[in-house]
Amino acid sequence: MFIITVVSDTIVLPPDEFEPGKHIPHIRRRIQEKYVDRVIPDVGLVVALYDVIRITDAYIHPADFHHQKGGAFCKVAFRLCVFRPMVGETIVGTVDRSTATGLYVKLGSWFKDVHIPYADLKDPCLYDEQTKLWIWQYKREDATDSFFYRPGAEICFSVKAIVFNQRQENKSTLAQAVAEKDSKGPSAPLPPMQVLGSVAGDGMGLTSWWAED
């Protein structure tokens, strides 16, 4: 679910952070401010700074239009802890909400962009417009049991794909179509990273369905 990735970047320290022996904590703080809780395209969601590998000699630039106070430009190599689940990985989350396009699932309070399209729910299923809930209709020999995907319930799903959305005009994507259908308009913002999941496999779905008596 989590990976370590190496990044090289130029970190700028203002003059009041030049104090000898104390520049490393300032560099770490500025890396965290720039990267943590942000998505690196085609990599994943940064959750923490793992460590700093290397800091090269800094170049001092005078004040200019972009950096009015001037600063020290440091080339830094560092490692980040990134949320990037593997395709096929099994994850347990919480049902956040349902729409006509499927389920939206959150992982704790730090990631809320998991989408399970209705085609990847257990079959047969139906969407109740009145309750706004998806229902799995499990057919037995003599009866049909209804299992509801209720908000707040714990759900086990497998990862089908990771989608990175970038702002691109005049380009239609599946994620854009889903967002537009849910919002009933063309201006719905796309999350920078979205996990597409499935509960169609054996043992998937709400964990309460499979709880032992």
Which geometry do the CA atoms define? elongated
Q: Span between N and C termini? A: 31 Å
Q: Biggest sheet, in brief?
A: 5 strands, antiparallel
The assigned CATH architecture of the largest domain is: Beta Barrel
Q: Work out the helicity level.
A: 10-25%
Number of helices: 2
Helix/strand order = EHEEEEEEEEEEEHEE
Residue windows where pLDDT falls under 50 for at least 5 positions:
168-173
Rg computed from alpha carbons, rounded to a whole number of angstroms: 23 Å
InterPro entries: NA-bd_OB-fold, RNA_pol_III_Rbc25, RNA_pol_Rpb7-like_N_sf, Rpb7-like, Rpb7-like_N
Organism: Perkinsus marinus (strain ATCC 50983 / TXsc)
Keywords: DNA-directed RNA polymerase, Nucleus, Transcription
Family: Belongs to the eukaryotic RPB7/RPC8 RNA polymerase subunit family.
Walk me through this protein's architecture.
The structure is a single chain. The chain has 213 residues and is mostly beta strands. It is built from 2 helices and 14 strands. The strands form 3 sheets. Strands 1, 2, 3, 4 and 5 form a 5-stranded antiparallel beta sheet that branches. The longest helix is centred in the first third of the chain and has 13 residues, at 23-35. The radius of gyration is 23 Å and the shape is elongated.
Secondary structure topology:
Layout: E1 2-13, H1 23-35, E2 39-40, E3 44-55, E4 59-61, E5 71-83, E6 90-99, E7 102-107, E8 111-117, E9 125-128, E10 133-139, E11 144-148, E12 154-164, H2 174-183, E13 193-198, E14 205-206
Parallel strand pairs: 8-13
Antiparallel strand pairs: 1-5, 2-3, 3-5, 4-5, 6-7, 6-12, 7-8, 9-10, 10-11, 12-13, 12-14
